Amino acid sequence: MRYSRSLIPTLKEDPGEAQVVSHRFMLRSGMIRQLASGVYTWLPIGLRVLRKVENVVRREMNAAGAQEVLMPAVQPAELWQESGRWAKYGPELLRLKDRNDRAFCFGPTHEEVITDLARRELRSYRQLPANFYQIQTKFRDEIRPRFGVMRGREFLMKDAYSFDLDEAGLEQTYQAMFAAYRQIFLNCGLKFRAVEADTGAIGGAYSHEFHVLAESGEDVIAFCDHCQYAANLEKATSGPLPPLAEVPVDPMAKVSTPGRKSIAEVSEFLGVDPRRTVKAMVVESDLGAFLLLLRGDHEFNEIKSRNALGAQWLKLAEPPRAAELAGTSTGYLGPVGATLPMVADLALEGLDGFVCGANEVDFHRTGVRWERDLPRPRFADLRAVAVGDPCPRCAEGRLEQARGIEVGHVFKLGYKYSQSMGVAVQGPEGGEVTPIMGCYGIGVSRIVAAAIEQNHDANGIVWPMALAPFQVQILLMNPTDAPSAAAAETLYAELLEAGVEVLLDDRDERPGVKFKDADLLGIPLRVLVGGRSFKEGMLEVQDRRGGAAERMTPQEAAQGLMNKVRDRLRQETGAHGSTTL
RNA sequence: CGGGGUGUGGCGCAGUCAGGUAGCGCACUUGCUUUGGGAGCAAGAUGUCGGGGGUUCGAAUCCCUCCACCCCGACCA
Prior knowledge:
The protein has 15 helices and 33 strands. The radius of gyration is 29 Å and the shape is globular. The protein is α+β, with helices and mostly antiparallel strands. The strands form 9 sheets. Strands 3, 7, 8, 9, 10, 11, 12, 23 and 26 form a 9-stranded mixed β-sheet that branches. A 5-stranded mixed β-sheet has the order 17-14-15-18-21, with helices on both faces. Helices cover 28% and strands 28% of the residues. The chain has 3 domains: 43-71 and 110-236 and 401-453, 2-Layer Sandwich (BirA Bifunctional Protein, domain 2); 253-379, YbaK/aminoacyl-tRNA synthetase-associated domain (YbaK protein), CATH 3.90.960.10; 470-572, Anticodon-binding domain (Rossmann fold, 3-Layer(aba) Sandwich), CATH 3.40.50.800. A hairpin with a 5-residue loop joins strand 24 (425-426) and strand 25. The chain binds one RNA strand through helix 13 and helix 14.
C-alpha cells in the first residue's frame, strides 16, 4: 500500500478523551475514530489489524473442528422471550421495533439463535458433536463504555457454541477449545494466562477466562508461583493460612479506644498485631442483612461473599445504613453481642484471643475466644486472597497477583438453553436425547487494544509480527531524489511479489515526520531508502523494537526482509509458553 | 441511575467571572527555501461558539431548557 494514497490520519497531539495507552495510540495512529460513545469506525490501518486477529482466530477454530456460520445481528424478541432472557436482560440489551411494531434486539450474544438453529437442523446423535462459531458485531449497551475499543458498546466478537451428546463429550470439546484458545493467543504473540473464573449466575461446572497481562487491565488475577493454579481474584482461594504463634490468652476485657476506628488505629493504639484483630462489616443482600467478620489485615470480596452466602446480590452497607442495621456506628462493630446473623471468614476459625469492636462507641474488646466468649459462627470464604498466601493446590506455592484484560472465556453451558428451547436428537438407543452445550467467546476487537497495552513504548505501538498492519515499511526519505525513489519502488515491487505485506511511505514529507509516523504505526521492520547510506549504495533495515540498524544492498534487501519476517513470526509464536498453563 | 466536568475551525486549547461583533498552536492550501527524528519565511482558506428558547440596542459570554461527550460510583449471561 502506498502511504500517499492511504487514509492514515495520524495525530501529533493526544486526544483529550483517551485515558489508556491503547486508546491514545489507536486514535493517534489513525486506526479508529469515535462515532458515538463506545462506537467506533475502523480506518484502513486499524481494520488490517482487526482482520489479522480474525484470521488467527478463524484458522485455529477451523483446525479445532468448529464450523463457521454467520448469524443475524438483529434477533426477534420471541426467541429471547422463549429463553426467558427478554425479561432478565436489563437495559444492556438494545431493543428495537420494526415498522410493524414487532420487537427485536441487536444481539449482545447468540445462544438463542444458535439453539434455535440446532433444534431445527440437528436430528441424530450422529451429527454430534457439533461446534458452530461466528465472528460478528455485537452490541451491549454498557453502562459505562471506556478505554476506546477495550470496552466499547459495539464490538467484534468470536463466539462459538458446541453441542455434545453427553457430559464426557462436552469435556472433550471444552478441552479442545481450551487448547485452541491457547494456540490463538500464542499465535498473536501475546503474554497471557488462562485462569479459573467465576461462573456467575449460569453456574456451570467450571469456566476459564483468558487474560492478556497488562498493567491497565480491569481484572486482577491471582496465580501460584510454583504450580499451574491461576484464578480471577473474584474466585481465587488460598490454602490454609499458617497458624499465628501461640500467645497466652487473657480473659475477655473491654478497653477504651477513644476515636480509634480503623484497624490500623486500633492495632497501633493497643500494640497488637493486626492479624489478631477482627473487623466486622455489615452487608445487605436478598437474604437480608449480615454481619461479616474478617481478619483485620484481610480484604473483603463481594463476589466470593455473595457466592458463600448463596445470595443473588450482596453489597456493603454505607456507614449510616450499617450503623442503623447493627445498632452501633461503624468502627466499633464486633461479634460479641451482635444482633445481626454472623458469618466469619475461614481465616478466623483458628484465631484465638483476638481484638474486636465492642459494639459501643470508643470501646473495643481484647482476648476474645470462640466458645468461651461467644458461640462459634458459621465460617465461609469471604475474603480476597492476598499476595503471599499459600497456594490452594500445591504445598510449596505462594500466590502472586497481576492485572489482566479478559480477552477470552470458555464456558460449560450445560442444558440451560438446549432444554428450555427444546433441542433434541435421536440417540443411539432410539430415544430422544437433549444435547449438552458449551460456549466460547473471544473479544476480537478487544484483543487489538490489549495487544497495544502489552506492546508499546513512549513513541508508539510496537506490533508483534502476527498482528502488525504491515510487516515491512519502506521509508523513502526523499521522493524527489530519483535514484533512491527508483530503488524504493523496485524493493516495493519485489516485496509485494514475494507476498510480504508492505507499506511504502512515498509521501513528500520531511524525514522527521516519516520517522515519527513510523514509530506511531509500529510496523515491525522498517527499511530506510535514501540519505547517507544510500549514497554508499546501502539500505538500512531497522527493527521497531530498537537496536542497531542492519545494512543491506538493494539487491539483497527483499530476500533479507522475507527471512526476517519469517524468523520473527516463528520466534514470537509460542515465545511466551512459560507464562501460560 | 447518582455525583463531577466539558462542548469555540480537522486536533489541542484561550476567551465566559466584569455582554461590544471570535483568537492561539498544530494540521490544511499556494509559493520559495529546506531535507537522517514532527522545518523556516510569506500569502491564504476554514467557525450554525453543541441545539432550541429568552433577556438586551447588542449574547460564545447572562437566564431557561434540551442534547452530546468525558471522569468517579453503582451495574456487568
